[in-house]
Design goal:
Distance between the termini: 38 Å
Helix content: 25-40%
CATH topology of the largest domain: Sulfite Reductase Hemoprotein, domain 1
Number of domains: 5
Number of helices: 23
CATH superfamily of the largest domain: Sulfite Reductase Hemoprotein, domain 1
Radius of gyration: 27 Å
CATH architecture of the largest domain: 2-Layer Sandwich
Largest sheet: 5 strands, antiparallel
CATH class of the largest domain: Alpha Beta
Shape: globular
Length: 752
């Protein structure tokens, strides 16, 4: 694992092991097309590389037909192609703590134009997604991203997802200290870490610089860290309060305190210990119960704390735990020096409105953070290029994405605000809507997600348009509310922590299905997502704008002086809130109001028949199966090298493939076996070859001899013939390892 610093990553210095993984993934695509990799294994593999199947395409399935020429059956645009291997999918790009540079924006814009639909989508986890990318193009896209320090590794699948952090970290006026270096260190440490490869479901982590604001929304995460500063003997001491077991979805849980006042040097090992406990004890069969929140709830937080403490005590020391502290925590610096701060005269109403909503004064005198709002989290490739140029001019590399699907510029000189406003207005990106009710958050919903029930983006777009048209007329107490929309109950739009939230569902009327949204009121955005809202009833999708009007109007009319929306909803109660919109639940006959039977942005009659199997994490695949699949890919590389006449590479790849396969087998009994060839081969020999366990009619011990002999000699193949022999024996060894794994799994099942 690399201990590369976060500044180096932003400058494009990606560790070579990630480049090798892209090669392996490309090989696995070819192997799957040849039918040599099981679809279940390949699905988990591509998900761990950030590759999703999209709605209407049912994933990537090989049938030898180029999807670029496919037509939709019977001209029905709702069903998608029948032949699907090359049908376009989605690629998710990790953006740890939201940090971006202009060159990264440029590259993603190029990729969106060349391989996608010219749109970059910012997610509620600060990622970037490219949609409609063909599977055979994915490795090329990944390599070009890696060249500028970006990765898609584990952006999906049963692993550690993108690590989020407050976009104001380091410049916030109320933070305890800058969490950015710690966020980056944990991201690098966990990326591909062996202890994070055998989870039953995904694992999400967030950082917050303070407890009271929204920041990283720690309380809704699997694991989160809130910075704190205490005065000890007259000196400030930094530490973290670490929380565990939060999550949204169908059964939202608030995170619980795992450990308080954790020193920065203990943050990484505490997280590692938590991951090991989750991997060992977390649910693996029932995906609906496989998140860590269920494990914490099952054993209780006190017992979970004990398990983590015990695991921490037996962890072997890792220098990466404190490497980022030893290197120093250099603060982020502005792109331009502060020569003097000029006062704005405020004569331009557009500028004044923008300044009031989109500008945040940093704790550093003379500087500000500016939010660039992105409608529904989307930005075109053309706008991305223009925005990149604006960033270079005003802030350099200090750009970040936000969980509200926007982009922020940090370290803007106050005297540059008017010029920045003008530059953003020229590219139509100076909307005065940041952190207002107009700035609606939404997941992709039925546009591209297989689990989407209702058109969340369609609804969010409609609300944004209607509220924007009357923004200046809205009561001040209403303008600052948050609206968040999810296409289903999984809460990817984070509707639970919104003032006004919606998630998609459906109802039947007269034999027809009607798109609906469940209304959720009174979630708490502050205090890191401190409490979740109340579900008060399902309303037809087309009536949701009226729901917003009724709720906000009643709030303005009934609120006590200084009363917040959260307090008002609590005082009004679920029954009182439901009564406000009760009559909107009634569904008339189709002939009376046919518009209710279609969804926003989709004229066809609503149907839930398009809903497919979600690819949030894929099926649970054992780490042994995955490692054997990787070994298969390396063996394939050896075959290609041999065909190219590269004897040295063929030998090296064949040997490496056998070592990886042996390690997969050893790890079934020794999970913590180090990545050391001597240890792996020695343990494999002692445990499986010498004991004759790696022997039966499916897996003869003779298949292990080439590995043992090649390792013992340490000598590469002297000629093409010797290399060819080793390449062939490597494939036989991997086949034997597969057979051994199947036999062992069968024996285990028979005894249960």
């Amino acid at each position: 694992m690399s201990t590369i610093g976060w500044r180096d990553r932003l400058e494009g210095q990606m560790p070579p092991d990630l480049a090798e993984e892209i090669d392996i993934f490309e090989n696995q695509v070819e192997l799957r097309m040849d039918g040599r990799v099981d679809e279940r294994v390949f699905a988990e593999t591509r998900l761990r590389r950030g590759v999703y199947g999209q709605r209407y395409d049912n994933g990537q399935r090989h049938d030898g037909i180029d999807a670029r020429t496919l037509t939709f059956p019977s001209g029905d645009l709702t069903k998608g192609p029948e032949t699907l291997w090359d049908a376009p999918g989605m690629l998710r790009i990790k953006v740890p703590w939201g940090g971006l540079t202009p060159i990264q924006l440029d590259v993603m814009a190029e990729l969106a134009e060349e391989y996608s639909d010219h749109i970059l989508h910012i997610t509620t986890r600060q990622d970037v997604q490219l949609h409609y990318v063909h599977i055979e193009d994915m490795p090329t896209v990944m390599r070009r991203l890696a060249a500028v320090g970006m990765t898609t590794r584990e952006a999906c699948g049963n692993g550690v997802r993108n690590l989020t952090a407050c976009p104001l970290a380091g410049v916030c006026r109320t933070e305890a200290f800058d969490v950015t270096p710690h966020s980056e260190a944990l991201f690098r440490f966990l990326l591909g870490h062996p202890d994070c490869q055998d989870f039953g479901r995904k694992f999400k982590i967030a950082f917050s610089g303070c407890a009271d604001e929204a920041c990283g929304l720690v309380m809704m995460h699997d694991l989160g860290a809130i910075a704190r500063t205490d005065i000890v003997d007259g000196e400030p001491v930094h530490s973290f309060d670490v929380y565990v077991g939060g999550g949204l979805g169908t059964t939202p849980h608030q995170a619980k305190l795992l450990a308080g006042r954790v020193p920065p040097g203990e943050l990484l090992p505490i997280t590692q210990a938590t991951a090991r406990v989750f991997a060992r004890l977390g649910e693996k069969q029932n995906r609906n119960r496989a998140r860590i929140k269920f494990l914490v709830a099952s054993v209780g937080i006190e017992e979970f704390q004990r398990l983590v403490r015990e695991e921490r005590e037996i962890l072997p020391f890792d220098p990466r735990w404190t490497a980022h502290l030893e290197d120093g925590l250099a603060p982020e610096t502005p792109a331009r020096s502060l020569d003097g701060v000029g006062e704005e005269d405020g004569t331009d109403p557009g500028f004044v409105a923008w300044r009031d909503t989109n500008v945040y004064l940093q704790r550093q005198d003379g500087y500000a953070v500016v939010t660039v709002p992105l409608p529904l989290g989307d930005i075109s490739s053309h706008q991305t290029r223009l925005l990149s140029d604006v960033a270079r001019r005003f802030v350099g590399d200090t750009v970040r994405t936000t969980v509200e699907q926007n982009i922020v510029f940090r370290w803007v000189r106050l005297e540059d605000l008017r010029d920045l406003y003008t530059a953003l207005a020229e590219i139509d990106m100076a909307g005065a809507v940041a952190e207002t009710i107009v700035d609606v958050t939404s997941c992709p919903g039925t546009d591209t997600c297989k689990l989407g029930i209702s058109a969340s983006r369609g609804l969010a777009g409609e609300l944004r348009e209607q509220l924007g048209a009357k923004q200046t007329e809205l009561d001040e107490a209403v303008r600052g509310l948050r609206i968040k929309v999810s296409g289903c109950f999984n809460s990817c739009g984070q509707h639970h922590v919104a003032d006004i939230g919606f998630f998609g569902n459906s109802r039947k009327s007269g034999g027809r299905v009607v798109p609906h949204f469940q209304v959720v009121l009174g979630g708490q955005w502050q205090n890191n997502g401190g409490s979740y809202g109340l579900a008060v009833g399902a309303i037809p999708s087309k009536r949701i704008p009226e729901v917003v009007d009724r709720i906000t109007d009643r709030f303005v009319a009934e609120r006590a002086p200084g009363e917040s929306f959260l307090d008002w909803t609590g005082r009004t109660g679920r029954k009182g809130l439901a009564a406000i919109i009760e009559d909107l639940k009634t569904i008339p006959a189709y002939e009376e109001e046919p518009g209710l039977f279609s969804d926003w942005g989709n004229p066809r009659e609503f149907s839930i028949g398009d809903i497919g199997v979600g690819e949030c994490a894929g099926e649970v695949i054992s780490s042994t199966d995955l490692e054997l699949s990787f070994a298969e890919s390396i063996a394939f590389e050896a075959q290609v090298a041999l065909e190219d006449g590269d004897v040295a590479k063929a030998d090296e790849r064949a040997y490496r493939a056998m070592v990886m396969a042996a390690r997969a087998i050893v790890r079934t009994e020794l999970p913590d076996v180090p990545e050391d060839d001597d240890v792996i081969v020695t343990e494999f020999d002692a445990r499986f070859v010498a004991t004759d366990r790696f022997r039966d009619r499916f897996a003869h011990s003779k298949f292990a001899r080439p590995l043992l002999e090649r390792h013992a000699s340490g000598e590469a193949a002297a000629n093409e013939e010797a290399a060819r022999s080793l390449v062939e024996e490597a494939q036989l060894f991997i086949d034997a390892a597969h057979a051994f794994q199947i036999r062992e799994a069968g024996a285990t099942s028979a005894t249960q």
